[in-house]
Structures are given as structure tokens and as C-alpha cells.
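Exercise 3.2. Students should predict the tertiary structure of the chain below and write it as C-alpha cells, then compare their answer with the key that follows.

Predict this chain's 3D structure.
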Amino acid sequence: MFLLFRLLAKLPLRWLHAFGAIAGWLTYWASPTYRRRFQANVRVAGLTWAAARGGIAHAGRMIVETPWLWMRPPSQPLGDVVQWQGAELVEAAMSQGKGLMVLTPHLGCFEICAQAMAERFGAQSPLTVLFRPARQAWLREVVDASRERPCLNTAPANLAGVRQMLRALRQGHIIGLLPDQVPPQGLGVWAPFFGEPAYTMTMAGKLLQQTGAASLLMWGERLPHGRGFVVHVRPGPVIAAEASPEAAAATINQAMEELIRLAPEQYLWGYHRYKQPRGLDIGVAPVAGSTGSNKNKES
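Answer key:
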């Protein structure tokens, strides 16, 4: 498998995206479970099939482009592969000196956002991103090596990682989170996502409240025919100091929804966003529209 990664990493991006589109559709038709989840998530979001079906091909592109992203030599700059829209917002946020939180949903190429941020702004401030270590040993080795890049640090998705992110913000650095990712045990609350209760991380809201850091939204658009990516930057959500974890999570989810609606054809609709975390006793998910609390929410 490692050799396959190396082989794919050497192919042109346009080839990878072409192969990925085919792989995405093959996976969609081969897996009834994936197909049902994809369709159900699109319906929950209230989108037409025409608006979202492009996500099938983009999910395949995301997988096949990964070796190219992870195994790119750290000394090799992205250069013209990446364009920016809204980079001035990053500069303005960093000038405040209170740290910066970048929130990126599973939209487009979220991996390119971290690499592009570290390359363009790392000399001013290093970037720390939250991630879940791979379970397979060979893949963990590849991931660790891929993220050993100048000015790009990683934090595990656990309490130690939370503390690491907090330190980074207090030092005025940049951190990156995927807030539409189902959090680990004890790090979330139920909050609406496209009107449906979804177990949502509280980390983002709490870190903003504790540090007063700025927040921005970011996503990496894939350009057609493997021409590269555009990193889009938009103003982030404002979390009131007195906001509850539920209210903060709902505000951040709403920001994610607005971003996803800009390019629903590049969202990862097959992601199991509404699942109840395995082995986590957090109570049963509330029915849509309920404002009740769960007995074991994070305090």
C-alpha cells in the first residue's frame, strides 16, 4: 500500500482527479449503505439532487489526491497550484495578536488549506491542526511524515490536544479545526446541523471564549480538470463570552451550513455526521427542534 501511495503521488493532479471521479461513482454504486447515507444527508440539508450529486465524484477525488498532498516533499512549494481569495482577512486577524482559529468543514480539499496556510503565513505564526491518528500502522507512518512540514504542527483529538491548541492561541498562533467532525468522547453537545441534531464539538467555542482569538472560515475549492485549488477565506462566527456550549455549537454549525451551501457539489455528503459516537454514553439524540439537554454533556 505504501508503494501505491508513492506511485499515485508522482501522477499529475489532473490524472488523479479524473481517476478519483470514477472511483467516487464506483464506490457510490457499490455500497448501498454509503449511497443511502449520502442521499439522506442531502435531503436533510434541503438541497436538490442536482445541486449535491457532484459530491460523489469529489469524494473520490479527495481520496485519490491524498497521496499527492501527503507525499509532496516539504521543500516543494505549492506555488501556482493554489490561489487565494480573502488572504487579507488572515493578515488582519493575525495583526490583532490574540491568535487565530481557522474553521474548515469537510468541503472541497481541506488538506490543502493547512498546507497553504503554513506555507504563506507560517513565517509569521506556526499553524497547529487537530487530527485523529490513523489506526493502521503503515498509514499512521505516512500521515506523520506528511504533516512534518515547516510551520505546521499537529495536535491529537483528545484532551492533550485541546491543551496544545489552547497554548497555541495564547501564544498568538494559528490553529485549524474541522468543526463538522464528530468529536471524541466527552468533547461535544447535541446541536442542530441543517436542522437535525448532530453531536458537535464544544472545543471551538470554548477556545474562542477563553482566549478572545479571532476566527475565520476557510475552504479549498478544487478547480476543474486538476488545475489546482482556490483557498477561500470568509469572516468567522462570533461567539459571545456568556454563550452556553449548546449555543456556541449551534452558531458554529450555522456558519458551516452557510459555507457548504456555497458549493454543495464539493461537500462530503457521505460523512456519517449524525451518528452517535461509539461507546459514548451521552444519552439519546434529541428529536429535531428539541431544546432539552443530555445528562452527560461536557461541562
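Discussion points: The radius of gyration is 19 Å. The chain has eleven helices and nine strands.
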